[in-house]
Structure formats: structure tokens, C-alpha cells
Amino acid sequence: TNALLEYTTVLGSWLIGARGGLPQPVAAGNASGQIQTSTLQARALRSQPDVSLRLSPPVLTPNGDGVNDEVGLSCLLSQFAGEVRVRLEVCDLRGRRVRTLVDGWQSVGRTELSWDGADDAGRRVPPAVYLCRLEVTSDARGFGRTRTIGVAY
Fold first, then answer.
1. Do the beta carbons of residue 76 and residue 87 sit within 8 Å?
2. I need a surface site. Which of 8, 48, 136, 146 has the fewest CB within 10 A?
3. Pairwise CA distance, residues 126 & 120, whole Å
4. Which pLDDT value is given to residue 47?
5. What stretch of H or E contains 76?
């Protein structure tokens, strides 16, 4: 089986009664003194490992004016039983690596990063369309996601 939650996972949840009504938030602490367990069972909509990559904004203008000088990258790894090998890089349209943002082992959860439009040497990249490529390798198989980033000055 796959580990869905770890002890450090924050879970926001709401309960809806069998007859409907408004969702009620679940607060931290014991639900009742009658429950003699600290185990929570949760069912996932997907039972297979998955990765997602989101960018905000998709166009970067790193000219120092404080507007869209960086692009936010949100990576979500879900349904993996342990740590997986993660590589996140920015490449030009020919596939040449411009910048490596992550290259190592990570556990499930969300990682928030940013890219400032610089290459590995710290130089600004020329205006163009770039590929943000996320590669995740688990014991079973590899996963990949690619998104485009526009750089304009």
C-alpha cells in the first residue's frame, strides 16, 4: 500500500451530514473521549502516484521593477510511499538546460520554489519561451510534467 499521510501532514477537512447541510470544519484535537484510537483513515480519489507542476505567472519579466520579476513554481508529489528522486530544471526550446532548480530526493507533499530568470551562472536569460521540466523517478516508474515559461523584457 502507499502511504497517504505522514504525521507532519496538515489536513484541512470538513464533515457533511448524511442529510446534507452546510459543511462543518473539523478542529484539531480528539473528536470524542469515546474514541480510543489516534488513527485516521482517509480515502484518496486516486490510488496511483501522481505529480503536478503549476506556474504563476506563466510570463516572467525580470527587469527589476517588482512586477513579475520571478515565476512561482508549485510541485506536488502525491501517493508515493517514500522519498523519490526529483529533478526540476528550466531548458530552452532545444532542450538545453539553462537552470537546475532541484536535483535530489524528496518526500510527498508540496514544494514551493521560484525562478528569477537567471541561468546556472547567475546571468539573465534572453527573452524567449522556456520549458520548465519536472522529472520524478520512483521504484515503479518515472513521471514527468512540462510547462512553458515566457521571458520578456
1. no
2. 8
3. 14
4. 63
5. strand 71-78
- What single-letter DSSP state applies at residue 93? T
Question: What does the pLDDT look like over 55-70, one tens digit per residue?
Answer: 999 999 998 899 999 9
Contacts of 107 (CB under 8 A, 6+ apart): 6, 77, 80, 82, 83, 84
Instruction: Report the relative pairing of strands 14-17 and 20-25 from DSSP bridges.
Output: antiparallel
Residues of the chain scoring pLDDT < 70: 1-13, 15, 17-18, 20-21, 27-47
Return the DSSP state at 29.
Answer: S
Task: Output the nine-digit C-alpha cell for 94.
Answer: 532545444
Alpha carbon distances (Å) from 128 to 56, 73, 143: 17, 18, 26
Residues 6+ apart with CB under 8 A from 133: 87, 88, 89, 90, 91, 144, 145, 146
Runs of H (alpha helix) within 64-114? none
d(CA 67, CA 6): 37
